[in-house]
Design goal:
alpha+beta, MutS, DNA mismatch repair protein, domain I, 3-stranded mixed β-sheet, 6 helices, 38% helix
Length: 142
């Protein structure tokens, strides 16, 4: 009696990507602007760029304190822009995997994506190759 070999799918490997600067990115800032900038919601700082952080602004500060300490420009949080930015990112990531979970900002001001990357790692010869390809693609698109 012959045994039929069972075909087992390869194990799944998940990559979680947190996006702590999503509120800045959604408004077109990359976090490395020359001027200090903070995102606020209900008069509290929820996100700071590098320059504002270097000048003393911190998440959780009230808007007035952050402005006095860092001279930062205060921008209102735009949740709709954050959601749209995450949707666009998820669409671009379908190039690498059909298994994507998007975590939209709710209680905290950051989003995340969870990607199944086992096949992509084989295709791009590891995480470094996948990362390089993604960086190159982003450079072309921006």
């Amino acid at each position: 009696m012959s045994r039929i070999s069972e075909h087992k799918p390869p194990p799944k490997l998940w990559l979680a990507v947190r996006l702590p600067l999503l509120p800045l990115h959604a408004l077109g800032f990359l976090g490395d602007e020359a001027e200090p900038c903070v995102i606020i919601e209900t008069q509290k700082v929820i996100c700071v760029n590098d320059h504002a952080y270097a000048e003393g602004a911190r998440v959780g500060m009230d808007m007035t304190t952050a402005t006095l300490m860092s001279g930062a420009e205060c921008l209102l949080r735009e949740v709709k822009c954050e959601v749209q930015t995450l949707k666009e990112l998820s669409q671009r990531l379908y190039e690498f995997t059909p298994y994507i979970e998007t975590y939209y900002p709710t209680q905290i001001a950051q989003g995340a994506v969870l990607l199944e990357i086992a096949s992509s790692l084989r295709l791009f010869n590891g995480l470094a190759g996948l990362y390089r390809h993604q960086i190159q693609e982003n450079a072309k698109n921006h």
